[in-house]
Specification:
The protein contains 4 helices and 5 strands. By secondary structure, the protein is of the alpha+beta class. The chain has a 5-stranded mixed β-sheet, sandwiched between helices. Bound molecules: coenzyme A. The site of coenzyme A (COA) has 17 residues, from strand 4, helix 3 and helix 4.
Amino acid sequence: MVELLTEPTPDIVAALGGLVSQLSTSAPPLSLAMLEQIVNSPATRLLLARHDGDVVGALTLVLYAIPTGLRGRIEDVVVDRALRGRGVGAALTEAAIELARATDVRTLDLSSSPARESANRLYRRLGFAARDSVVYRLQP
Ligand SMILES: CC(C)(COP(=O)(O)OP(=O)(O)OC[C@H]1O[C@@H](n2cnc3c(N)ncnc32)[C@H](O)[C@@H]1OP(=O)(O)O)[C@@H](O)C(=O)NCCC(=O)NCCS
């Protein structure tokens, strides 16, 4: 049910575009070139969840080496609203944890707005613990 995206196609761009719009209203439109950039980067792994062949969920695992070691981050987790509550989000997150463990990351981080209650419950259930740290962003 969960697979690693290796060959982006226009159909996958369309399906993922629909998912991204359920995650963010301000994200730029997804293109084949952007998906190819994600797939071709050694720092990103895009996981897709399928149901009856259709793409119904996605998660991006980011892996990066810094002086304190190899680190991982989970980003852009989304499941189609018609299929939520059936374990798809858990399956995607568990697959990302497995991939991260296989690459020997020191830590696997993610951040989620407290308003995203389902997401926060899911991450805690899978073993993520909240850190006492402030998340900053500069809007360039
Ligand atoms: C957060 C999100 C990805 C979770 O996806 P999901 O597929 O619904 O996740 P799961 O089904 O694995 O878990 C969600 C709920 O289903 C329940 N569940 C999990 N497996 C289940 C199963 N096999 N049978 C019944 N219920 C199940 C969980 O207990 C959980 O319930 P709760 O939220 O009431 O505690 C999804 O809600 C989503 O896309 N939200 C909008 C975007 C978003 O917030 N993304 C996260 C950004 S950090």
